[in-house]
Amino acid sequence: MEQPDEILAELAKLGETRTWEPGTAVVTEGDMADCMYIVHTGELRAVVAGEGGRNVELNTLGAGDFFGELMLSGERRAATVEVTVRAQLTRVTRAEVERVLASRPDLAFHLIQRMVQRVRTLTHTVSRLASVDVYGRLVGLFDVLAIDDGGQRVVPGPLSQVRIAERLGASRAMVNRLLQDLTQGGYIEVSRERIVLLSELPRRW
Questions:
Q1: Bigger pLDDT: 84 or 120?
Q2: Fewer Cβ within 10 Å of end Cβ, the chain: N or C?
Q3: Best CA proximity match to 79, nearest among 64, 59, 65
């Protein structure tokens, strides 16, 4: 059986490839779904509209990912996918995808595996949003994003308060207050480019 990247590369031959600039919405929540996209380079994020017009970020997408596969059910888009880092994508129409799936059971199996994994990830995200308070979600987000930089734990940026709020399913005001409290407590150092984790964050706040 072919490797996933080889399968996606073959599928990409059937579509149109172009470059998308940061800030562009590739698909919009509620629109009719008639194609899927394969990500070659760059970064995107999937968001849904929450209460009060506030967005909630579901996940991020990078090279080797794909999105829009729910168009196979003929439904409308379940989320908006926006470009955060200049991206190269291939758009493949529903008709082409259905034709390939009919003749390539290995590709169909791969798509099902990826969709199952995505459902698991979303289930975890929803469970975390429902069971953990905003501060706990913030600590979890920092744990996931932090990297080692010269012996320091650093959350690379730019990562605006609005973006953090959307990833936590919280208000910008709440995120601003928590970051200010952690800064004043000597736990973090915030700049435009990054957030330095100066010491281990308290598990509760």
A1: 84
A2: N
A3: 59
